[in-house]
Write a structure and sequence with these properties.
Blueprint: H1 9-59, E1 63-66, E2 76-81, E3 87-91, E4 97-100, E5 107-111, E6 116-118, E7 121-126, E8 135-141, E9 147-150
Antiparallel strand pairs: 1-2, 1-5, 2-3, 4-7, 5-6, 7-8, 8-9
């Protein structure tokens, strides 16, 4: 028998198909991992906001929640305590982006005396800063400070 050196065309095609299939799996897994991390950051943002409301209620401190309007998205949410002017920032590390759905307002104020947020707001949460980015859902905060996540998730 003669010893073969190299691969036949069929063997080479099989190796190429296996390589392309495994590469495609990794690309799809990478995208779904990014989406999963974005959803995790969305739930972290909700938890951070809820913690801020709890702290304000327990300490009796008013605060202003600052957010961007329809034209701009940002990966950060900002709270400014009105008694000390101290600021706290939630940063999603560019995993998800927040945009206020109000046409005119860019902030809401929490009153510990009445336990209300004026005005209530809806934050659109996407995977990127552009308007065509994939929608993750909405963070809806009622005037009575009930925080819910609605939408695609």
């Amino acid at each position: 028998m003669l010893s073969r050196r190299g691969l036949t065309l069929v063997e080479l095609l099989i190796v190429i198909f296996i390589f392309m299939g495994s590469t495609g799996c990794f690309v799809l897994a990478g995208r779904s991992l990014r989406d999963l991390l974005a959803v995790i950051e969305l739930t972290k943002a909700r938890t951070w906001l809820q913690g801020t409301f709890i702290e304000a209620t327990q300490t009796g401190r008013p605060f202003m929640l600052k957010y961007t309007t329809r034209s701009v998205s940002t990966s950060k949410l900002q709270v400014q305590w009105l008694d000390t002017l101290e600021e706290e920032i939630f940063d999603s590390a560019h995993m998800c982006y927040f945009r206020g759905m109000s046409a005119t307002e860019s902030s809401s104020i929490y009153s510990p005396q009445w336990y209300t947020l004026t005005p209530g707001l809806t934050l659109k949460v996407t995977t990127g800063p552009k308007s065509n980015s994939r929608l993750l859902g909405y963070i809806v905060i009622s005037p009575y400070c009930r925080i819910t996540i609605r939408g695609h998730l």
